[in-house]
Amino acid sequence: MKPERASMRLVFASLGMISVMAQVMLMRRLMSVFSGNELTIGAALAGWMIWTGLGSAVLARSSDRLARPRETLAVVFFLSALLLPATMLLTYTIKPWLGYTHAEIVGVEVVILASFIITGPLCFALGFAFNLCCRMIEEISAAVGRVYLWEALGSCLGGAAFSFILAGRVSLFLQVHLLMAILFAAACLALPAGWLRKAFVLLVLLSLFGLVIPKDRGLGRIAEGLRWKDQNLLIVKESRYGELAVTESSGEVTFYTDGVPAFTHPLPEPAEYMVHLPLSMCENPRRILLIGGGLAEVASEIMKHQFERLDYVQIDPDLTVLEERFIPAMKGLLSDPRIHVYHEDGRMHLKLAGSGYDAVLLNLPAPETARLNRFYTVEFFELVKSRLNKGGVFGLTAGTSGNYLSQAQALLLGTISTSLDSVFDRVVILPLGVNYLVAGDEAALLSHDPERITASLRQKGIRTRFVREYFLQADLSDERLESVKARLDSVSDVFPNFDLKPSGYLLGLALWLEQAQPSYRGILELMMALPKISLVFIPLVLLLSGIPLAFRRRARASAVIAVLASGFLTMAMEVVVMIAFQVIHGYVYHLLGLIVASFMIGLAAGAWTWEQAAKMLKRRPRGLEQCFLGALAILTLIPLILIRVVPFLIRHQFSGTITFVILVSILFVLALASGFIFPAAAALFLSGSDRVGSAAGWINSADHLGAAFGALIISAFTIPLFGLDAALVLGFFVAASSLLISLVGLSGFFHKGN
């Protein structure tokens, strides 16, 4: 039998490239629409994976009945190319379509519903395309593994291309035109030579023509009009870190990051509180560090102090460029030799800082995401303390109202203050419009007293509009301070926030959900009361349902359940590795692309290893089963290895290169085992049958459904509720359950033959 042509390999690789790039683009859009956090990411990934799995499973038998799979695949790619821009445009209109305004915070059920509506048609088509690709290979036993190998290589290429070439350099809808061209080209390659292929070549050229259409006349302009139709939009820009937008209203300019207002200019009141409250408690604030937020408003207030150096750390350089463009005062600030701007991770900057600071100001939102939570943990507070000079102060906000503390707000404020108390000698809470916190050592001049705060500012010759005794006396009265203290004392089960047990992230997420729908309060309290032992429920259900199936269906049941568990574990461990690396060495965006690329290379290497093993053991089916079980055993060991390695890396703080190599090496082995299991499971599922479409459908759908549950359960629930270690333990038990089920289904100890 002849091997598939090189053009077919390009088709398979194109499927992987399209899937990864479209997935990342869609997740970035949904994060912008729904003020994204890990729950949004989990919902988007779950929607994508479930629909792709359903596309494979529902149309599995139809794939085998088709007489002309190549032509059908071309049609699927053609329809996908049309669905792609429609899908992206739908993200801009989904909120009004569901009855919400663009600025309204929506509940978790709306996020999940919208994610499933948006991802449905496109992902269903791509899932069906995998089955059709498998039909195009003549060697039935190797079909699924061969397509999987080339799809993984395409995914690797797509992830790397997006991270290093497209992200932050090419607008969203230019990316859409490029993907449409790839889809039409793949359809062209899938077709036999003839006039129809020439027609698809024309479509490729038309899609590429979209790359040179002026921005104000293309799909991007239509999308911007839908998203910002009620506001005076000045600019929208795709940066490497998300979507940036600037609007103007009544002389005020508001800067957005992923649809969330980051800061507004001019808006002096919060800037005065952010700066003058902590600096009034520092006798001589010469060296100041500002992390996050905008520079213009806060720096203008800092300029009133006699400082020697201000270091401003903002991870996204494009945000600073936009601030300079639309705020005239930025030019003068950036030309001041005392002000130094660093576009890097704030935590990494502190770690590498050569000199100490007299004041550190954290100007970031509440810890609603794992990335933000890194700046509210005990470990970060210890890092801040180590960089503060004697008498230095640390100022931050808790993202909670100073007027009324709901349950979620009280828990979040209590967790942050408890974490600060465990590190610093003294901490004061100042309940103004929001709750401001100032921490320092015994030499710091910390105080709740409005008279002492304003007297310190007067002594330094600083004039303010809002930080004045007249306003502060009402907000910082003894009665109000006592009320906040009593509210915090009434909250039980408040624990410090740690890197590996991010309770602050959980409570920040709870605050977000409470703002969207107050009725979630009871559900959140129920979730927070869950013991760790409740995690056993997932592997227990897998065992109780899988073992009877393994006795009845044997090889087929073992294959499907193994891939289901493999999909769950690989997605879960990928999330854990990314968060662990982020905790240790900061939000290094470009390295995340390398992590994904390394993972995809591991999948491809695993699929290739299966091909070689299948050739060598062609006449030893029991040997192939043993290799399959061995790969499952390796998969089971990975979480146990990470349980020991991650705390070790955090404790010893090796260089970024060493940490990256260690974590990616472990992830590569995980991907290698998973890449081996997928085609091996497909071969077991076939077991003498020639229904390659059905095998591809069942195995591909199991992989995607497992990954969907892994994304949602691990990122949105397990890690925020119980921590990284619990996520690893859950991954181990899921993999171990799958291994036991496969032993029952395949081992000759339980039955003879297959």
Question: What's the helix and strand layout?
Answer:
Elements: H1 6-33, H2 38-58, H3 60-65, H4 69-97, H5 108-135, H6 140-166, H7 172-190, H8 195-209, H9 219-227, E1 232-239, E2 242-249, E3 252-257, E4 260-265, H10 268-279, E5 287-291, H11 296-302, E6 309-313, H12 317-326, H13 329-335, E7 339-342, H14 346-352, E8 357-362, H15 370-373, H16 378-387, E9 388-401, H17 407-421, E10 426-431, E11 434-440, H18 450-459, H19 469-475, H20 478-490, H21 503-516, H22 521-528, H23 537-553, H24 555-585, H25 589-616, H26 621-652, H27 656-686, H28 692-722, H29 724-746
Parallel strand pairs: 5-6, 5-8, 6-7, 8-9
Antiparallel strand pairs: 1-2, 2-3, 3-4, 9-11, 10-11
Can you describe this structure in just a few lines?
With 754 residues, the chain is of the alpha/beta class.
Name the features.
single chain; Rossmann fold; 29 helices; 11 strands; Growth Hormone, Chain: A; 754 residues; 3 domains; four-stranded antiparallel sheet; seven-stranded mixed sheet; alpha/beta; disordered C terminus
Written account of the structure:
The protein contains 29 helices and eleven strands. By secondary structure, it is of the alpha/beta class. The chain folds into three domains: 229 residues, Up-down Bundle (Growth Hormone, Chain: A); 227 residues, Rossmann fold, CATH 3.40.50; 225 residues, Up-down Bundle (Growth Hormone, Chain: A), CATH 1.20.1250. Strands 7-6-5-8-9-11-10 form a seven-stranded mixed β-sheet. Strands 1-2-3-4 form a four-stranded antiparallel β-sheet, with helices on both faces. The longest helix has 32 residues. It is globular, with a radius of gyration of 28 Å. The C terminus is likely disordered.
